[in-house]
């Protein structure tokens, strides 16, 4: 029996990659780190979105955030520039709102993306007057703080809620059966997702050790560092396109 592949990327991208791997006859476990839902309280969000034209820059952090933001925003004012941290989210933004929307993002593979890479672009462009972050109920504070230090008026609003993975009874049973076989290959794309995985495994005796003795594929050095902290030793870096991810996963399976 081949080692299972645990896919943890949120959103439809996870299902697309899973379907591709399943067509190739591989054993795929779909464990998206987060499920995206709309928030229960929306008064503040609606108030801010009614005044979108007052913002120079709107930051959308991830591909899975785009459908939630698109629920609230159908068209962007011409004065607004969108910003994101990598090409994957940029593609999702173009798909949602078209090629005419103004958009800045760091080009290149995931290793050269992220908040720091976006910030370098912002510094070259100069300080925006007002910046809106449309994100989940929590998020990394590094980038909003950089804008504040630059003198921008920064508004952070919850546009969606991230619900972390909780293994179902069926997934737990599958995990316990799998622990008698080869160690898995895990594809994970954020530091938060690594923490979610470790938390989800905690109730099952031996599960964390079994998983971390396997291999991990990820997209950014910061995530790789968190994986090492969690106990993984075999870690490979990839870009986000499905063909490249598949090649890295297969390399571990065939090693």
Automatic annotation (TrEMBL):
Species assigned in the record: Sutterella parvirubra YIT 11816
What is the name of this protein? Uroporphyrinogen-III synthase
Q: Which GO terms describe its biological process?
A: protoporphyrinogen IX biosynthetic process; uroporphyrinogen III biosynthetic process
* Known EC number: 4.2.1.75
Q: Which Gene3D superfamilies does the UniProt record give?
A: 3.40.50.10090
Tetrapyrrole biosynthesis uroporphyrinogen III synthase domain boundaries:
16-234
- Enzyme category, top tier: lyase
Q: Which reaction does it catalyse?
A: hydroxymethylbilane = uroporphyrinogen III + H2O
Which pathway does the database say it acts in? Porphyrin-containing compound metabolism; protoporphyrin-IX biosynthesis; coproporphyrinogen-III from 5-aminolevulinate: step 3/4
Q: Name one Pfam family in it.
A: HEM4
Regarding protein family, the annotation reads: Belongs to the uroporphyrinogen-III synthase family.
Q: Which UniProt keywords apply?
A: Lyase, Porphyrin biosynthesis
Function in brief: Catalyzes cyclization of the linear tetrapyrrole, hydroxymethylbilane, to the macrocyclic uroporphyrinogen III.
Q: Which GO terms describe its molecular function?
A: uroporphyrinogen-III synthase activity
Q: Which InterPro entries match?
A: 4pyrrol_syn_uPrphyn_synt_sf, 4pyrrol_synth_uPrphyn_synth, UROS/Hem4
């Amino acid at each position: 029996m081949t080692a299972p592949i645990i896919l943890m990327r949120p959103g439809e991208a996870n299902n697309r990659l899973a379907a591709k791997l399943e067509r190739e006859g591989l054993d795929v476990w779909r464990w998206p780190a987060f499920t995206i839902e709309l928030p229960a309280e929306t008064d503040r969000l609606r108030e801010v979105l009614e005044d979108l034209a007052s913002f120079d820059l709107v930051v959308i952090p991830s591909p899975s955030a785009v459908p939630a933001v698109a629920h609230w925003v159908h068209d962007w004012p011409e004065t607004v520039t969108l910003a994101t941290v990598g090409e994957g989210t940029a593609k999702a933004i173009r798909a949602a709102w078209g090629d005419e929307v103004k958009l800045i993002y760091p080009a290149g593979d995931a290793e050269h993306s992220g908040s720091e890479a976006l910030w370098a672009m912002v510094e070259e462009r100069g300080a925006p007057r007002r910046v809106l972050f449309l994100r989940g109920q929590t998020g990394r504070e590094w980038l909003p703080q950089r804008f504040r230090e630059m003198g921008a008026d920064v508004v952070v609003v919850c546009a969606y809620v991230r619900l972390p993975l909780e293994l179902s009874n069926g997934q737990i049973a599958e995990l316990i059966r799998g622990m008698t076989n080869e160690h898995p290959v895990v594809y994970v794309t954020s530091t938060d997702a690594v923490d979610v995985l470790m938390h989800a495994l905690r109730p099952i005796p031996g599960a964390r050790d079994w998983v971390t003795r396997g291999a991990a594929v990820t997209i950014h050095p910061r995530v790789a560092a968190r994986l090492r902290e969690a106990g993984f030793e075999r870690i490979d870096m990839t870009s986000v396109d499905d063909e490249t991810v598949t090649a890295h996963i297969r390399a571990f399976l065939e090693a």
